[in-house]
């Protein structure tokens, strides 16, 4: 998510200028849409609270983010791009909040600080992702790069979901060898 997802903002100025043909005002509207989506994501977390499991929110937000990136890559009109980017903002806030929540609640007290320090690597990965996505965007184009990012994010989330599901369903053999 950090490398191929969150770094999509690196491409937004070029997306606003070249794909939507709008310049700085269009770019600012896209950022506003993402912010409004982020507020909606926080509201969803606040109002749903404990009615939804953090792991479900986590996986669904990641899958939604990936699908949103693919949808954005197919958009060339501001009025269509704004709600898609708002959805990306929602999914991003939910994903990041649930990621931190899961890390803190599933870690033992003696390891929590170390685990949270590893989370900081994801922030660095987003910076590296920005470089990667920028280079890909220059070489392959913004639309293709957004599509690739969305496919990678969605595929990764589905793979994690299936692996988790398999580990919950698989019979565990606790006999000694």
Identify the notable features of this structure and list them briefly.
single chain, 177 residues, mainly alpha, Growth Hormone, Chain: A
Write a structural description.
About 80% of the residues lie in helices and about 0% in strands. The chain is mainly α and about 180 residues long. The protein has a single domain, classed as MFS general substrate transporter like domains (Growth Hormone, Chain: A). Helix 1 packs across helix 2, helix 2 packs across helix 4 and helix 5 packs antiparallel against helix 6. The protein is globular and about 50 Å long.
How would you summarize what this structure contains?
The chain is an all-alpha fold and 177 residues long. The chain has helices at residues 12-19, 23-48, 54-73, 78-106, 112-140, 142-169. The protein has a single domain (6-166), classed as MFS general substrate transporter like domains (Growth Hormone, Chain: A), CATH 1.20.1250.
**Number of domain modules:** 1
Give the fraction of residues assigned to helices: over 70%
Mean pLDDT: 85
Put simply, the count of helices is 6
CATH overall fold name: Growth Hormone, Chain: A
Fold topology:
Elements (H helix, E strand, L loop, with lengths): L11 H8 L3 H26 L5 H20 L4 H29 L5 H29 L1 H28 L8
């Amino acid at each position: 998510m950090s490398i191929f997802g969150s770094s999509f903002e690196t491409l937004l100025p070029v997306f606003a200028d070249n794909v939507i043909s709008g310049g700085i005002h269009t770019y600012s509207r896209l950022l506003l849409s993402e912010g409004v989506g982020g507020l909606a994501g926080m509201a969803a977390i606040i109002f749903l609270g404990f009615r939804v499991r953090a792991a479900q929110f986590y996986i669904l937000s990641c899958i939604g983010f990936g699908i949103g990136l693919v949808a954005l890559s197919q958009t060339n009109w501001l009025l269509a791009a704004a709600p898609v980017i708002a959805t990306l903002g929602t999914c991003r806030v939910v994903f990041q909040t649930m990621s931190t929540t899961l890390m803190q609640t599933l870690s033992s007290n003696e390891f929590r600080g170390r685990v949270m320090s590893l989370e900081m690597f994801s922030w660095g990965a987003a910076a590296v992702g920005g470089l990667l996505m920028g280079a890909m965007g220059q070489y392959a184009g913004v639309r293709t790069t957004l599509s690739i990012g969305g496919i990678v994010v969605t595929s990764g989330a589905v793979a994690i979901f299936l692996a988790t599901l398999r580990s919950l369903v698989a019979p565990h053999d606790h006999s000694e060898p």
